[in-house]
Amino acid sequence: MAMLLYEAPTGIAIFSFDGDYLNDSVEDFWECLPPLNLEEFIKNETVPSPLDTMTKAIDDHLAKRLTELCGSEKKLVVGNVEYKRIIEMNLRITCLHVHVPDCKVVICSLKNPMYTLLPRKLPNPDEDLIFFLKQHYIGCKPEMVNDYIIKEAHILHENESLEKEHLKFFRILLKDFLVKSCIDAKNWNAIHFATALKVICYPKASYEVYRPDKIFPCGVHQKMKDHSSEYDTMFAKIDALSVYNFVISLSSEKFLILSELDILVTKAKEELKIAGAIRCKDRSPGKRKTNRIDL
After folding, report:
1. Spans of the chain below 50 pLDDT
2. Minimal CA–CA distance to 69: which of 39, 92, 94?
3. Rounded to a whole number, what is the largest CA-CA distance in the chain?
């Protein structure tokens, strides 16, 4: 038996899994993720910083649980190299660092309801902004970019970064459930995963938006309910309703950001057109002055 520590957006999750999987290539760990059992989930509101990379300290509760679950024999897989150093230094637990790969983010756009956005950082707005907006079907020329557009694009990027972190966690948390229930989640976005988690934990819950029977293909919602009893107790360690509500709020916020960006770019386009018309007028011949020569 081996353990996996994963930093989720809302806390620290500790999973157990068959240690024989570590005999395979480390690069294949996330691609061929073993069946995981959620042993512990420490919420962020309970412990703000369970692993402090600045002070190299580890929270007492997390340290106790890791010691109980791992002991001195079990290997602990971590997705953060700094966490590996902190845990090995403080707890003498052997850690294996396996970098968590990025994932595709399926998002909603104003002009295209659903499409795949490849992960892309936005460290320099001057270099990446135009391409970033183009991914969202917002056409913007370099000369149209202003401070308002840059600011709103950064807000959108932060929103999608949060969405991506939730997607990574959902893929790990729900993989075993999806495999056993024969559900294909290849093209799911964060709302699909959050809804699936809510269905598993609360099969009889009601939905104001994104009803499961509407957002999932025929039969998928029933499959979730049929297999929920095998996982609801394990996933009860996570506040599924809070996670669901947060993901829904992210989606609503994204729609507003995209709407604002669309307005800002349209306004910038009009201002550019007006400025161009003024420059053309200033360059027009008009009345030509002639130099008078007296003989």
Report:
1. 105-119, 287-288, 293, 295
2. 39
3. 111
